[in-house]
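Why run this: before we spend reagent on co-expression, it is cheaper to look at a predicted model of the complex and decide which construct boundaries make sense. The entries below are exactly what would go into the expression plan.
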Amino acid sequence: DVKVTQSSRYLVKRTGEKVFLECVQDMDHENMFWYRQDPGLGLRLIYFSYDVKMKEKGDIPEGYSVSREKKERFSLILESASTNQTSMYLCASRGFDGNQPQHFGDGTRLSIL
Amino acid sequence: SQQGEEDPQALSIQEGENATMNCSYKTSINNLQWYRQNSGRGLVHLILIRSNEREKHSGRLRVTLDTSKKSSSLLITASRAADTASYFCATRAGGFKTIFGAGTRLFVKA
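The model came back. C-alpha cells follow.
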C-alpha cells in the first residue's frame, strides 16, 4: 500500500513565524500535491510538483512556497504565518499516469495564533 | 468555481438503508473519482471511473457516470455505522489538476 506521511498531525504556531510542513511518500510517485481544506470550501490546491525541483502554482499559492529536493519529500512553507492560514493541510501523491488516484496523508491541523 | 459539486450536502440514514450521493461538474473530464474522509483524517480513494465508462462496482459501492448530463452518483448499499464519513467527488479534466467538490456528510445511525 502507498503510504503518505505528514510530519505532524497538529501544529500551533504564532503569527509571523516561518512554518514548515513536511510530507514523505514511499511509492516513488512523480506527482505530489499540497491542499488546504476549509469547511464548506472543499480542497483547494496550493502547489503541485511533478518532479524533483519542479513545481507549479495551484489555485491559492499566495503566502506559501514549496520545496522538492528529493523525489519522496515535498515540503510546504508558510513564509510568515498569518491567522487566515489556520486550516487543515493535506499532502497527496500520485504516479505519472493521470488516471491513477491520489493518495493522501492524514493531514496537519495547523493553528496560527 | 468548483468543478465538482456534491448533493446533498448532508445525509442521515438508518443502518441497512442505501445512501445515494450525487456529483455534478461543468467541463469535459478524463475521469471522476470518489473519496471518503473520516473525521480529522486524510482522504481515502474509493473508485475511479473513466470518461468512457458508465458504471463501476466495488463491494457495496456502485458509481455511475453520465457524461451527457455531466453528473455522477455514488451508491452505498446496506450502509453501516462505519460508513459515517464525508464523501467527495473529484474530477480531472487534463493537465495536473484534480478538482474536488465540497463533499457530502453522511451519517449512518445504528
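The first strand of chain A starts at residue 4 and ends at 6. Chain A touches chain B through 25 residues (CB under 8 Å). Bring this page to Monday's planning discussion.
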